[in-house]
Amino acid sequence: MQLTVVIPVYNSERTIAPLVERLQACLAEQIFEVVLVNDGSADRSEVICQQLEEQYSNVQFISLRRNFGEFNAVLCGLNHASGQYVVIIDDDFQNPPEAILTLVATAETEKYDVVYSRYEQKQHHWFRNLGSWLVNKLTTYSIGKPHDLYLSSFKLIRRDVVDEIIRYRGPYPYIDGLIFRVTRNVGSVMVPHNSRAEGRSSYTVRKLIGLFINVFVGYSLWPIRVFTWLGALSFGLSLLSGLMLLIGWLSNAFSIPGWGIVVWAVGAGLGIQLLFLGILGEYLGKLFMAYSGLPPYVEKKSERMKERKSG
After folding, report:
1. Distance CA 122, CA 220 (A)
2. Which residues contact 52 (CB under 8 A, 6 or more apart)?
3. Which residues contact 85 (CB under 8 A, 6 or more apart)?
4. How many CB atoms lie within 10 A of CB 111?
5. Model confidence over 241-253: pLDDT tens digits?
6. Which of 36, 43, 49, 133 has its CA at a distance of 20 to 30 angstroms from the CA of residue 57?
7. C-alpha neighbours within 13 Å on the C-beta side of residue 12
8. What's the pLDDT tens digit per position in 107-137?
9. How far apart are CA 11 and CA 163, in angstroms?
10. How far apart are CA 99 and CA 130, in angstroms?
11. Cβ atoms within 10 Å of 221's Cβ, excluding its own
12. Is 236 helix (H, G, I), strand (E, B) or coil?
């Protein structure tokens, strides 16, 4: 299998069948498979995906028991992908399926491990564009992303990187964070970006906040280290100010009021506490990242996978 196309499906009863049909047409000269992961859709997406699996021999369908989130659904799809290249594409037609060939050609020519799509003009709602910009700024510092790289959901990943990503067994996968734990050999290529074919984006304030928290505390010890630095700075300033107060008192250069000693004691104590909490947080953070073992998704059914295993 040369190519796997992973599609997280959520309330896409009107778009998923045309998308799969278009993939069959534009990738007709490729050896490929399509992995559909229904992420607890409330419409008829599950029924339609099951029909697509029965209609096409190269379509595999997995349905999750509830809505776990896009990244969890994508991780599920990656676990079922067998291609040497794995492309992740949304179910809303904003990324034209024909652009998959552009990602593949770029990966083969430039030998990138991961190829992200980038857009000259994004057709998202302004709120989603704002959220994407904020997340991209955050990931630049938290996971070491290059400043000029846009982390789009439409991307290609090589097989060996996929094999490392799917080793993750925690409950809060962030695919781009997992990618940058594995490789820095990442590039991008310009592709078209269309308006949504149907419906509206499920990108909400709640999901944006959840993503921020996930990236902020789940894939980097940077927040803990900020408090460690603040504690060290506060403690260092308190020591310096205490030394100045002591020298002034010994040399009779100035008198020390009672409230000054109280302020110094409070500052010194706060600095010590922040420093201690930061060091303690380093240990707890490393333990959390090493031993978090809750499942990222729970499968409800995967009939074709059962058939492959039994065969």
Report:
1. 29
2. 16, 17, 20, 36, 59, 61
3. 2, 3, 4, 103, 104, 107, 156, 157, 158, 159
4. 10
5. 778 777 777 777 6
6. 43
7. 25
8. 999 999 999 998 876 655 555 556 666 767 6
9. 29
10. 24
11. 18
12. helix
DSSP 134-199: HHHHHHHHHT---TT----S-EEEEHHHHHHHTT--SS---HHHHHHHH---EEEEE---PPPSSS
Residue 26 burial (CB < 10 Å; 0-12/13-18/19+)?
middle
Nearest to 16 by CA among 4, 7, 6, 25: 7
Give Cα 116 to chain centroid, integer Å: 13
Using CA atoms, how far apart are residues 219 and 182, in angstroms rounded to an integer?
A: 12
**Tokens representing 256?**
């020390």
pLDDT tens across 177-196, in order? 889 888 999 999 999 877 66
Model pLDDT, residue 238? 78
Structure-token pair, residue 261: 């000693």
